[in-house]
Amino acid sequence: MSAIETGTSQRPGLAALVERFPFLPALVILLALLALNGWFQPNSLGFRAITGLISTYLALMMLSVAQTYVVYAGDVDLSVGAILSLVNCVIIVLMERWGGGGIAVLMACALGILTGLACGLLNGFVVAVLRLQAIVATFATSIFFTGIALYVLPVAGTPAPTIYWRTYGGRFFEIPFVFYVVAALAIVLVMATRARLTTQMLAVGDDAFKAFQGGLPVTAIRLKGYMLCGVFSALAALCITGDTASGDPLVGGAMTLYSVAAVVLGGTALSGGRGSVVGSVLGALIIGLISSLVFYVGTPSQWQNLVQGLAILLALMLGVMVTRRVQR
Amino acid sequence: MSVEAAGKAEASRFSLTNLIRQPLLVALVLIVLLLALGEMLSPGFASPQQILRLLIVAALLGIVAAGQNLVILGGREGIDLSVGGIVSLSAIIAGNVMNGADSGILPAILACVAAGALFGTFNGIGVTLLRIPPLVMTLGMLGVLQGLLVVIRQGVPSGRAAPALSEFVTRPFLLGLPGIIWLWVLIGLLMAFLLRRTVFGYRVYAIGSNEQAAFLAGVPVRLIRISLFTLSGAFAGLAGLCLIGYAGSSFANVGELYMLPSIIAVVLGGTPLSGGKGGYTGTMAGAVLLVILQSILTTINIDESGRQMIFGATLLVLMLFYGRGRAMRA
Fold first, then answer.
1. Residues 6+ apart with CB under 8 A from A227
2. Domain boundaries, given as residue ranges, for chain A
3. Domains of chain B with CATH codes
4. pLDDT for res A318
């Protein structure tokens, strides 16, 4: 940690450290943003504000993790937002139909995750098996998923059962529920980092042809990446349902591109072969902190989007350049 | 030698697989089939006025796709996600500059193309000099443009198109065709000339297929790539201007409808996203194909949900005809 002070010359140790932990530049940006937030609004570092930030951006964190698993292998998924919307609609409708009790909620969530898995399977099939170009093929499937979401829930507005959003926004033993989710996510991600599949996906992303010649089942690995992506998109949907407490067939539309931005902010290369899911989580938080900082510094409301857009563009450029410089 | 010759003879012989490999031909056949299908589903779909209307909509998409096409041809994962934002911005600029007066048309054209080119140049500089991946750079730029739209729209009336511009876009201009279709044809000819008959065009294909070889051969790679993004922005700006002529006034984020469809039109036209191959003639057919498909779906009497499902599924099936990735076991 001490090696990442600003202004250090390019010591081999630093380069090695960023090589091993690609999310370090993101962590520095995140800490800087936290400090700036605290500077302009001391309350923003309080327990309550951080809880609010996390419960709002947990969905984007999950969605960015989802995106990372396909980017690892050099692919991209422009349908994650549509999968999120679809799963959101599916669980809302199921929970309402089954009466909104505890069992109903759990069953609906399980079916929602299966829905996400099925979507990921379709994406993986068209991209890895049929070998269509990922950007346009997943855009096509996103239209398809949006269609299903509109079929399941034609208009936005059906509320989630009270038990659902009370749990999501509630506390257990004085600790907010979302903190448990973040802890669970952290454990899963750290374990996943050591999993063989992660290494295989990175190998495919680095050079698919060499990976194939090395005996890796490239198609199956890419397919698994898309399935993981579908599952995490569904988890993101569970989070956003807890946050908004309602169903909306178009809720995820704008989130797809933010998930790509978060992945890049987290130090993962879009060309594949290098990156980390932890970085993507940090990237999602960076996006959240940028928008709260823009608010805290007192930007006039009509300028907020512009300043936020400029700040994200700057952070993206900075992240890409720092990562490249250190890794050369 | 004889094996090679035999192979060539094989290739030139009539065969269905070879025909299917010709994206332009596939697109044209599909266009005719879709028109026939539309006419069957709702008589009058393929009437001359309807086809003319479809062509106007296709021209708007096609002009955006021209710039997108150039950026994609230039390779190195070239893609421009900011075109949607530029179209929206340019529509607002055009509306405010013209404000319903014919005298404002020339300044509006200049302002729109200049604004588009400016943002395109920023993209190009980020991609080449700072070496930001195009997807990331143009995605970030899209965010900036969307923010800019909010700033501009606050308190300012979004303006109206000049009557002459609306006339140019929607009314017959020459030989019964509206001006915008002539403009599109002109752009098509210019693009074909640019790509096939100029040094610039050959250099675009060169950097698209092998950037390093092109650089070693003395091609100013960076300059070419920046100018591709500049052109993409300029085309999007022009499209925004034409769009307000078509719609009369601009409305929120209208350009978003052009972002990914412009990429789809390029792909359906036979230019793979990997660049270095393809051309604009196919893209024009791709744009027409896309617009006809959307139009058929709005004509038939089904829910929005069913429409979207069919649209998505059809796009996937169409893509199967075009550049699938290389199999590992080759």
1. A117, A120, A121, A124
2. 23-327
3. 46-319 (1.10.3470)
4. 84
